[in-house]
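Field reference: sequence -> structure
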Amino acid sequence: EDWRVADAGLVLVAARVKTSGAGMEPAADARLVEGWWQWNPASAPLPELVLRNSGAAGDWRICVADRCRSVGEILGAGYDQVTLRPCADGTRASPEKVDGLFR
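Structure field:
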């Protein structure tokens, strides 16, 4: 999934899956691109997004300004969940700010 920070909250702008499964079915308008079903969901902004670490599906990656790091790399292995929300002061994240959020 690709999310964007907007004034109204976090907006889901793109989603993709390689194969379908429980709760992971591509949307009706999805298109197959390089082995991934991709689509642009229409959903309302969210005030926050909770990422859980099941240990079975791989780690989440946070990307800012084309710099990506796994949440496990930032927090250390074995984290349970992370809550993402827009900055209260309206500023945008930078790679350095993302690093500081998890310290």
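Note: The longest strand covers residues 9-17.
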